[in-house]
Design brief:
By secondary structure, the chain is α+β, with helices and mostly antiparallel strands. Helices cover about 60% and strands about 10% of the residues. It is elongated, with a radius of gyration of 33 Å.
């Protein structure tokens, strides 16, 4: 911006000088002048025009440089924004990115016209996996689970790593039946996967996931919807793990006459 300011000031000064040259030429041409004076006048006008063209060329060069720098900065800002909203291990959105997407959904014009659902999943006995095979192997499991979540979301859906071994999916314009089907597909995909210890080549214990599903109520807070999905997840864990539980919002009480 500073460079452009200097360049524009220089161009403005050049325009002012050129305008003054034209006025002086016009004043002299309005009187009787000799041929030698006319040649000198033309030579001066040519010089002023050349200076004006040089100034314009310099300004054009600076404008082009500034455009390239602005494009590079825009790309860098877009990259930083993606990185700020992404989980570096799994490539999914992180909690910040997910909550921003959920708030954007709340602000959409047709938010209240459709059913929207949340799905929260947590890897079963993940601490045991880390303790038994190490954190690097645990990271590998997280990537495998993240891929299952990513593969089974589409369109407006958004999957995110919500923290630790917990994952979450936003399912806009999806009724609860559809959300349960997605959850069950994820559960089966992870359950039937085969995972091998990279050090020994042996197949390790089966990896499973428990999931909680709920429908988002128009007008409730993000925290309320997430807490209800988390409660459904807790019930899945308590019910034996490797299962899907659904907890629907409690309908409001109606006054009776």
């Amino acid at each position: 911006i500073e460079a452009m300011s200097v360049s524009l000031d220089a161009a403005g000064n050049e325009v002012t000088r050129y305008e003054q040259s034209l006025k002086e030429c016009a004043a002299q041409l309005s009187t009787d002048i000799e041929a030698d004076e006319l040649r000198g006048l033309v030579d001066g006008l040519i010089t002023s025009t050349q200076q004006m063209n040089a100034g314009n060329a310099a300004l054009q060069h600076h404008l082009e440089e500034s455009r390239r720098e602005a494009d590079a900065l825009r790309e860098e800002l877009a990259k930083v924004r993606v990185e700020a909203h992404s989980d570096p291990l799994t490539g999914l959105a992180n909690r910040k990115g997910f909550e921003e997407r959920l708030r954007a959904l709340e602000l959409s014009e047709d938010y209240g016209e459709h059913a929207h659902c949340l799905l929260i999943g947590d890897i079963d006995k993940f601490k045991n996996i880390n303790d038994t095979y190490g954190h690097l192997f645990g990271d590998k499991i997280l990537k495998i689970v993240a891929k299952a979540f990513s593969n089974l979301t589409k369109g407006k859906d958004m999957a995110a790593r919500f923290g630790g071994e917990e994952f979450i999916i936003l399912l806009p314009e999806t009724p609860i039946r559809g959300a349960l089907a997605v959850a069950e597909s994820i559960r089966r995909s992870i359950e039937k996967g085969r995972v091998f210890n990279p050090k020994t080549g042996e197949e390790v214990q089966r990896v499973t996931i428990s999931l909680g599903v709920t429908e988002i109520v128009h007008g409730e807070t993000i925290e309320q919807a997430i807490a209800r999905a988390d409660e459904a997840l807790y019930r899945a864990k308590e019910g034996g793990r490797n299962r899907v539980e659904c907890l629907m919002p409690t309908p409001p009480l109606r006054a009776t006459a």
